[in-house]
């Protein structure tokens, strides 16, 4: 049986645990519940992926985004881990293959959306797979349980049934941001009253924060990109869909490889743009907050805001997508009095 450190070294390629990772891994692998608050890029995924490989059975990872599931599964398979996902974007053959592997106990980790998890078919599948063992339940982006948050997903409120149905299976809830009120909501709604709570430092010393007075924001953005981040990957956030499309078109016309992303776009186009951004170098994504959770791209060198974010929490979440590889990155925002209005 491999140790946690051996898995970290040999499977995931990291020399040592960071911060509280080792303590969390030991706690969950030993059967304990946990609530983990760790900054974007802090290594949250390892806190459930390693216990999943240490414990018998399949780990169920509840994730709100298809793109995030696909990226994590692809990375795990590349590392030799038996992983799969089940989501609405798959064809029937893919779903059937994943469901059979799960029911037969042939997976280490299975990623699923909260909506799919709550379906009668998946509940039946869980009961079938439980014969081979359920390693743990990982509830990613757990702040979605908060009705006051900008990423609220009502299905998260129903995930307390996991503890009622399988009280001996450990659960780990993870998020990059949650104030004290949101933490209480997560604990109450997910029935994590006896969970260990781990709060890592939210300081990101590799990110430099800069705010400029807004004059001609678009021209200021272009100057910023050309002078300091030419050819580098980054995200530009705007509040409106129209502004997203206009800004992306402006940057493209100015010689910057820019793509647009917002909830009003056709789903295939939106997904293609996100995949291009995640897989290719030097792409600038201009987006609304619909381009949000689970942007698992390590080399984002800047996050720029052309509009004031809706809250300080949202600003932290969005800027935290820069510099996940630990290398220097920048958070840049153009701010004017019109933003307050």
Walk me through this protein's architecture:
The chain is α/β, with parallel strands linked by helices and about 350 residues long. About 40% of the residues lie in helices and about 20% in strands. It has 14 helices and 13 strands. The strands form two sheets. Strands 3-4-2-5-6-1-7 form a seven-stranded parallel sheet, sandwiched between helices. It has a six-stranded parallel sheet with strand order 8-13-12-9-11-10, sandwiched between helices. Helix 13 links the parallel strand 12 and strand 13. The radius of gyration is 20 Å and the shape is globular.
Helical stretch tally: 14
Please report the distance between the alpha carbons of the first and last residues: 60 Å
Class by helix and strand content? alpha/beta
What would you call the shape? globular
Q: Tally of extended strands?
A: 13
How are helices and strands ordered from N to C?
HHEHEHEHEHHEHEHEEHEHEHEEHEH
Strand percentage lies at 15-25%
Radius of gyration, in Å, reads 20 Å
Low-confidence stretches: none
Query: Residue share in helices?
Result: 25-40%
Give, in spatial order, the strands making up the sheet with the most strands.
3-4-2-5-6-1-7
Arithmetic mean of pLDDT? 89
Largest sheet: 7 strands, parallel
């Amino acid at each position: 049986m491999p140790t946690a450190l051996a898995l970290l070294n040999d499977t995931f390629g990291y020399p040592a645990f960071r911060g509280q990772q080792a303590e969390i891994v030991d706690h969950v692998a030993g059967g304990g519940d946990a609530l983990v608050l760790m900054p974007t890029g802090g290594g949250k995924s390892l806190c459930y992926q390693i216990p999943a490989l240490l414990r018998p059975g399949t780990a169920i990872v509840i994730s709100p985004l298809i793109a995030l599931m696909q990226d994590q599964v692809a990375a795990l398979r590349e590392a030799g881990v038996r992983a799969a996902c089940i989501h609405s974007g798959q064809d029937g053959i893919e779903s059937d293959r994943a469901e059979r592997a799960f029911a037969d106990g042939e997976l280490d980790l299975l990623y699923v959306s909260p909506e799919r998890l709550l379906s009668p078919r998946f509940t039946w599948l869980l009961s079938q797979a439980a014969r081979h063992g359920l390693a743990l339940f990982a509830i990613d982006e757990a702040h979605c349980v908060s009705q006051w948050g900008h990423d609220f997903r009502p299905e998260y409120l129903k995930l307390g049934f996991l503890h009622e149905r399988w009280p001996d299976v450990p659960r780990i809830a993870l998020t990059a941001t949650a104030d004290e009120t949101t933490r209480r909501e997560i604990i109450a709604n997910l029935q994590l009253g006896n969970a260990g709570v781990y709060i890592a430092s939210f300081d990101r010393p590799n990110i430099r924060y800069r705010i400029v007075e807004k004059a001609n924001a678009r021209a200021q953005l272009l100057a910023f990109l050309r002078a300091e981040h030419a050819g580098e990957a980054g995200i530009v956030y705007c509040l409106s869909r129209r502004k997203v499309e206009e800004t992306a078109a402006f940057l493209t016309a100015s010689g910057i490889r820019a793509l647009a992303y917002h909830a009003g776009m056709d789903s295939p186009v939106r997904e293609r743009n996100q995949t291009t951004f995640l897989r290719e170098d030097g792409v600038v994504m201009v987006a609304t907050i619909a381009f949000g959770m689970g942007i698992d791209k390590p080399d984002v060198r800047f996050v720029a805001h052309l509009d004031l974010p809706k809250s300080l929490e949202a600003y932290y979440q969005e800027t935290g997508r820069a510099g996940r590889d630990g290398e220097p990155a920048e958070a840049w925002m153009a701010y004017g009095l019109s933003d307050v209005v």
